[in-house]
Amino acid sequence: MQQKKQxxxxxxxxxxxxxxxxxxxxxxxxxxxxxxxxxxxxxxxxLAQHGLLPDTEGWNPDKITPALDAVILGMHAKVDxxxxxxxxxLGLRIFSFPEYIYEHSKNKQRIVIAGSHGxxxxxxxxxxxxxxxxxxxxxxxGAKVKGIENTVKLSDAPIIVIEGDEYLSSAxxxxxxxxxxxxxxxxxxxxxxxxxxxxxxEEEYVKQFDLFADATPKGGILIYCEQxxxxxxxxxxxxxxxxxxSYKNHPHTSDNNGQFFLTNGKERYPIKIFGSHNYQNISxxxxxxxxxxxxxxxxxxxxxxxxxxxxxxxxxxxxxxxSVYKDxxxxxxKVKATVKALxxxxxxxxxxxxxxxxxxxxxxxxxxxQYKDSMKAAQQQIVYFNPAKMKDKGMEVLTEDDIRKAFAAxxxxxxxxxxxxxxxxxxxxxxxxxxxxxxxxxxxxxxxxALAEKLQVS
Length: 458
Known about the structure:
Layout: E1 7-11, H1 18-27, E2 31-35, H2 43-49, E3 70-73, H3 82-90, E4 94-96, H4 97-104, E5 109-114, H5 119-132, E6 138-140, E7 152-153, E8 159-163, E9 168-170, E10 173-176, H6 177-180, E11 185-188, H7 202-214, E12 221-225, H8 229-235, E13 243-247, E14 252-254, E15 260-264, E16 267-271, H9 276-290, H10 296-303, E17 314-318, E18 323-327, H11 332-345, E19 350-356, E20 380-384, H12 387-392, H13 400-407, E21 413-415, H14 418-427, E22 433-438, H15 448-453
Parallel strand pairs: 1-2, 1-3, 3-4, 5-8, 5-11, 6-8, 11-12, 12-13, 18-22, 19-20, 19-22, 20-21
Antiparallel strand pairs: 6-7, 9-10, 14-15, 15-16, 17-18
């Protein structure tokens, strides 16, 4: 498929991973076009930078012509999308994102990292270490990593490392994306019910990971976190002619200055990420890398320079007695792990945790009780949501009482207006306190770096 230059059109080019694939294909010499009904930053700016931003927003069937070699369909596009209908009418080759990646990598060793939480960081660590030692490899990642230009790379490399999502492949294909990649080495970091709009109960959600594990081929490898009960249950199931390996927290320690270390016997290796979940992530990445030629000693050398995936426990501002962090956490298990990790690094400081209900699952009245006790490690728990967005999505609007009941947290504060939230935070004294923001959204446009600069920290 890559042997000759192709004309490729993206339906829903503005998606977080779709726009990065479009850029990678253009850089590979292909002729790329795309459409979307809404494109926001960072996708908008990045597409513009690479000359791929559509002239107008909206769907334009005129862009679909017999001259196209392939159409890549994003999961945001619906079955009645006019461009999709035109492509079907013309009999064009239509791929979902994972189908296209598989088509590109049929002759490669495919490594797929799956899990409700941790998969981005594990994938990022594997990519960082391989890049550190100048190995030749392709990758698909859900967040930026320092030193790596794009989040998708496609070449003639013999290996591809893929962050595997359990969400549906496209409107035409309800298969979870991570199954479409057809892994040789698969990893399950942990399983906690998410995507309520697709998997209405926990049993159906967990089943997808069981299918992923069962798809490990003869001679393949399945790696799983033994400290996660669901991953353990699925991972230890016997499968003919597959190698099943478990991992747990990497040995670690810290000093009185807040520096964290991985340990190997008496040796210590300083690291820049922290928290129990990240010690698990480090071990998972280490197991994958051992299977593709990276020794434990090489791994420990390279991991010391890993700064984390963008948006994952990112320190926005540091004062002598206060630090401000932002994290991508949105599912209950991610929120719980992030809050716990931040409290662990500064147990003597109060922690103020601010969480935005932004995803379909988190805004659903039936799913939101899953967040019970997710922020209990924080001394002050705050939830922000925008009821207008819920109305726009045709959802039943949550009340503040719904949220307080779901989180079961005495003293929980609920804000529906980002200005009111900002004013509240600016009025507080931040001496000996840490502030944490968690969301896959933008808190209604709240400028977190600017707010961090104005905190009362005396």
